Amino acid sequence: MSSGPYKVQVGDSLYEIEVLAYEPGQADKQSDLRVRIDKAELAVQVSRPAEDQVRIDFPNGQQLVHILKIGNEWQASVSGLHVTLEQQIGRSKTGLRQLPREVTPPMPAVVVRVLVAVGDEVKQGQALVVVSAMKMETTLVAKFSGR
């Protein structure tokens, strides 16, 4: 599953949707998602009642979305409204859990060495950067595998 962000054009309005956390359901059960739509965060449950359908359960109701993949593009139809989903960043090859956007030291620090480059594949626990604080060096590691 991709994390996005996705740009969704609905009429003249443009929305940015990003998956912040994903917990897959067992077999045909619902999956739990935490998403951000523009600046609002929302917890939803998602299931696939049919190959071309996604049911999204929101805190105040549910919505059935018909989906279709044409080439590399995803089309979605909701209550007669048709949209195209366009991914804005690369795909993750691992299942999503918490998706931090930055690696931060436990206290204010100075970067001593950067051990990976932008776009490198990293494994969970791999050293990313060495920082120095109060004359002590600390190695910050990846919390999960990915790019």
Report on the structure:
The structure is a single chain. By secondary structure, this protein is mainly β. It has no helices and eleven strands. It has strands at residues 6-10, 13-23, 31-37, 40-50, 53-58, 61-70, 73-78, 81-87, 110-114, 127-133, 136-141. An eight-stranded antiparallel β-barrel has the order 1-2-3-4-5-6-7-8. A three-stranded antiparallel β-sheet has the order 9-10-11, with no helix packed on it. A hairpin with a 7-residue loop joins strand 2 (13-23) and strand 3. The radius of gyration is 19 Å and the shape is elongated. Mean pLDDT is 76; it is low at 88-99.
Number of helices: 0
The amount of helix comes to under 10%
> What Rg, in angstroms, do the CA atoms define?
19 Å
* Strand segment count: 11
User: Reading side by side through the largest sheet, how are the strands ordered?
Assistant: 1-2-3-4-5-6-7-8
The shape is elongated
SSE pattern: EEEEEEEEEEE
How would you characterize the largest beta sheet? Answer: 8 strands, antiparallel, barrel
* Overall pLDDT level: 76
What fraction of residues sit in β-strands? over 45%
Low-confidence region ranges: 88-99
Measure the end-to-end span.
Answer: 14 Å
Going by helix content, strand content and strand pairing, the class is mainly beta
What descriptive keywords fit this protein?
mainly beta; three-stranded antiparallel beta sheet; 11 strands
Q: Can you summarize this structure?
A:
The chain is mostly beta strands. Helices cover 0% and strands 55% of the residues. The protein has strands at residues 6-10, 13-23, 31-37, 40-50, 53-58, 61-70, 73-78, 81-87, 110-114, 127-133, 136-141.
